[in-house]
Amino acid sequence: MARNKFKILDTTVRLISDRGFSQISVDDILRESNVQKSNFYYHFRTKEDLAIAVLDEMMQKVDEEIWQGILQDKSLSPKQRLDKLIEKLVSDFETAGGKIGDPFGNLISEVNSHDERFQVKVNDYFIRYSSFLEGVIHEGIEEDEFHQSLIPREAAEAILSQIQGAYLLSKAYQDPGALRRNIEFLINVISV
Predict the structure, then answer these.
(1) pLDDT reading at 14 higher than 70
(2) Could you give the CA distance from residue 133 to residue 92 in angstroms, rounded to a whole number?
(3) Most confidently modeled of 41-45, 77-81, 181-185?
(4) Which of these CATH numbers, 1.10.357.10, 1.10.60.30, 3.10.20.30, 3.40.640.10, describes 54-190?
(5) How far apart are the first and last CA of the chain?
(6) Which of 33, 131, 135, 174 has the fewest CB atoms lying closer than 10 Å?
(7) pLDDT in tens, 140-174
């Protein structure tokens, strides 16, 4: 049964990336994953329950690849970590053909935000992301890589906002370079 759950989650993440959450149905997921409907409903009562499980899966991936894998990499200076973050985000965006941005940013615009479970997951994601960025900014100030006048929390939220907005521009322009330019601009503004 766990294998079917993994197939459902994996397929859903892929379909969300390709089409968006609101554009896929349970039947689409079942057809693409080759899982029976009874197996779907064994693991998930509703499509919204699946969305919560997908958020958990995506959060784990972001934690491993970005928060721990890049922002907590003490072998790199704070500025190098932000540069590596930009490279990762741009690379992922280009690999996906410019179709996807931040999956949490995408989902929050599609899924009913009145579902408290969903809202808690999304809030946790943005709070954690901002917290990791805040730590990098704080270290960068201490190491004289970033301006001393910065307030780490505000700078972290500005970077996170810039990332979300840069994804939208890149999708609108169909230009991954817009993602890089906009994030690099802000990193350059805060750098000494």
Answers:
(1) yes
(2) 19
(3) 77-81
(4) 1.10.357.10
(5) 54
(6) 174
(7) 999 999 999 999 999 999 999 999 999 888 888 88
pTM tops 0.90: no
Residues in the chain, total: 192
Pick the CATH number of 1-44 from 1.10.10.60, 2.60.120.200, 3.40.50.1820, 3.40.50.150: 1.10.10.60
Measured CA angle at 47 (ends 42, 49), to 5 deg: 70
Closest by Cα among 3, 12, 101, 112 to 56: 12
Whether residue 177 contacts residue 165, with contact meaning beta carbons closer than 8 Å, is answered with no
Structural contact between residues 140 and 86, judged by C-beta atoms closer than 8 angstroms: no
Q: Where are the beta strands (DSSP E) in the chain?
A: none
Nearest CA to 115 out of 56, 51, 27 is that of 51
Contacts of 40 (CB under 8 A, 6+ apart): 8, 26, 29, 30, 50
Mean pLDDT score of the chain, rounded to an integer? 90
H helices then E strands: how many in the chain? 9, 0
Task: Compute the distance between CA of residue 61 and CA of residue 69 in angstroms, rounded to an integer.
Answer: 10
121 pLDDT tier (thresholds 50, 70, 90): confident
